[in-house]
Design a protein that fits this description.
This protein is mainly alpha-helical and about 200 residues long. The chain has five helices and no strands. It is flat and about 165 Å long. The chain starts with 7 loop residues before the first helix and ends with a helix.
């Protein structure tokens, strides 16, 4: 039997279908490649983020170690300073020490004694200075007596500035009090009469 050839229109449609399938395959391959690239980028970003966090942690640990070492060194320095300070002597020793200095320099001040006492490990205060003076037999320094200026006495018989007092007659004062009492009695009588009238009016109503 002789084979029948397909018409030209059918051949064209078949070619178009194959071309469409090829383009669809290409698109799917492109999508897959883009997906792979995006996944690779995400993984690289995650790795870089992890590396950064690890670096930060190591940096924090290093700073914490440095701080601890600094604290230890400061503690050692403070302990050395504490040990280097001299223990303060007794009162008798400080008095004897102050007396020696005052004997050498009579006009020595309290501030100078305090500064020298800190160096030698003596606590100086005013009582020590007084005891040192007593030991040397100097005694307290005398204060200069200030003269008081006395005010001039007022002459007798004269009165100071201001209005002079009025001379009051006792009989006139008694008469004034009696007159005031009479006025008050009159006012009281007038008030009683007015109250009686008001009471009569209220009863009549």
């Amino acid at each position: 039997m002789p084979t029948r050839k397909k018409p030209a229109a059918k051949r064209k449609t078949a070619k178009r279908k194959t071309a469409k399938r090829k383009t669809a395959k290409r698109k799917t391959t492109k999508r897959k490649t883009t997906k792979r690239k995006t996944t690779k980028r995400k993984t690289t970003k995650r790795k870089t983020a992890k590396r950064k966090t690890a670096k930060r942690k190591t940096a924090k640990r290093k700073t914490a170690k440095r701080k601890t070492t600094k604290r230890k060194t400061t503690k050692r320095k403070t302990t050395k300073r504490k040990t280097s300070r001299k223990t303060p002597g007794s009162r008798a020793e400080t008095v004897a020490w102050a007396a020696r200095l005052m004997k050498k320099k009579r006009d020595i001040s309290m501030t100078e004694l305090k500064k020298l006492g800190k160096k030698d490990g003596h606590k100086v205060y005013p009582l020590i200075l007084g005891l040192a003076r007593k030991e040397l037999g100097w005694g307290r320094p005398k204060k200069k007596a200030t003269r008081r200026t006395t005010a001039p006495a007022r002459p007798s018989g004269r009165r100071g500035p201001g209005r002079p007092r009025k001379a009051v007659d006792p009989t006139a004062a008694i008469h004034a009090v009696i007159a005031r009492m009479r006025d008050l009695e009159r006012e009281a009588d007038a008030l009683r009469k007015a109250i009686g009238r008001i009471a009569d009016i209220t009863r009549g109503m």
